[in-house]
Specification:
7 helices, alpha+beta, 260 residues
Length: 260
Amino acid sequence: MKIINWNISWLHDIDKKIIYLQKITEGQPFVIILQEVTEISYKKLNSVFSSSATVAYSLNYRKPGKFDTNSRKLGIAIIISKDIFITDISVLERTVFPERTLYVDAVWNNTPLKILGLHSITGCQHKKAKSIQFYSFAEAVDFFKPDIVGIDANEPKVDHYDIHKMLFYDNFDKGNGCKTFFETLSLYSLDDAFSKNYDTEKFIFGEALATSHKIGKTDKKVRYDFLFLNNEKFRNYSCRYEYEQAIQAGSDHASVIVTL
């Protein structure tokens, strides 16, 4: 089974991104969580994957209104192979941008799977709203107790293999909103899939454990994209970041790929 989290970026055509996704999921059950999915991209994804998978899309549950700008038209898609059965789909109504969230209840081999896809707004544009958003994300984790969480967090400021030692951007609350979210994940047995088997001897404070994005003109390497897995259901797996391949496919973020 493959579990993938990827901010596909609204820029560039979706076709190369679809080819890339087909290549890395071929011949096995899969769960794909995508951020920055436009309506045009969703329609193409649904057209290509509909024979082998179910495609859930957040903007079908929180539709853009008359006065919404393009910033309210970037949704989340969760694509699940048809050997995994979806029983419910919703967005997080109590968060700042519900369309940047998607929650799916599913069943795989008679085992319930709760899947949560999230995309944080940026602090540079939204300031304290980003912190408020993370508190609502923490609330959702506390309520739904998901088994899989895929997120483009636009955080942390300083990466670490120990969540409790990560440093977060201020956002007018000294980073407490984001800190609360990450620590709530840990509280509910959700492991950072990459950090679980990370060689801590390689760690250099201030450097990202892996590159999932590069910031602006500085090209600062950061790890903003994560998969968290319930350690009571998922034990034996590998996790990797594919940056170069994902960039070549047309995104500006790495894909995060778990192989069970």
